[in-house]
C-alpha cells in the first residue's frame, strides 16, 4: 500500500539518522523505484538497511520517500530473538513527524503487542494489530513466523490523508 507524505517538506532525516545509528543499521543510498513504469504508480525514492545484532538475528529498516523527498513510509522488521527488539520497535513508532505524538505511539505499541502475541499463539498464523492513527501517520504491528529465521515482528508507519 502506497503512503502519502507525513507532512510537506518532512524528510525524516534527523530521526532516521538517529534510528539507524542507535541500531547500527547502515542505510543504502536512496534510489529511484519506478515500478517498471506502470501507469498510475508514481515513482518514489527507496532505501533500506539490515543489521545483525547477534548471531542468527536481524533488524531491518525500509523507507519510501516521494520524489520531492518527503517521507511516506517507514517499515521496521526484527526477529523476536534479536537483543533489544522491543526497544527497536518502540523507537520505530516514535517517528517525529509534524503532529507526531511519540509517547502516545509508544504507549499504543506497549498495549497492543501482548494481544498480538496472544492472538498469534492461538492462531499460529500471521496476526496484525488494529491500526493506530496519529495525525497523518498510521501504524500497525504484524507478527509472523519467518521460517528458519523464527518469529518476526514488522511495524509499519505510513502517511495517510486526514
TrEMBL record:
Out of the domains of life, which is the source? Bacteria
Name of the featured protein: Uncharacterized protein
Amino acid at each position: 500500500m502506497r503512503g502519502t507524505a507525513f507532512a510537506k517538506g518532512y524528510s525524516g532525516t534527523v530521526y532516521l539518522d538517529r534510528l539507524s545509528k542507535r541500531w547500527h543499521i547502515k542505510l543504502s543510498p536512496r534510489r529511484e523505484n519506478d515500478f517498471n513504469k506502470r501507469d498510475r504508480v508514481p515513482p518514489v525514492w527507496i532505501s533500506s538497511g539490515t543489521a545483525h545484532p547477534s548471531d542468527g538475528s536481524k533488524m531491518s529498516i525500509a523507507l519510501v520517500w516521494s520524489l520531492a523527498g518527503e517521507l511516506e513510509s517507514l517499515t521496521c522488521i526484527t526477529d523476536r530473538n534479536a537483543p533489544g527488539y522491543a526497544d527497536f520497535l518502540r523507537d520505530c513508532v516514535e517517528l517525529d513527524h509534524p503532529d507526531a505524538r511519540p509517547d502516545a505511539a509508544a504507549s499504543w505499541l506497549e498495549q497492543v503487542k501482548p494481544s498480538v502475541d496472544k492472538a498469534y499463539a492461538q492462531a499460529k498464523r500471521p496476526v496484525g494489530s488494529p491500526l493506530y492513527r496519529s495525525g497523518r501517520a498510521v501504524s500497525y504491528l504484524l507478527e509472523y513466523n519467518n521460517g528458519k529465521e523464527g518469529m518476526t515482528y514488522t511495524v509499519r508507519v505510513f502517511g495517510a490523508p486526514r
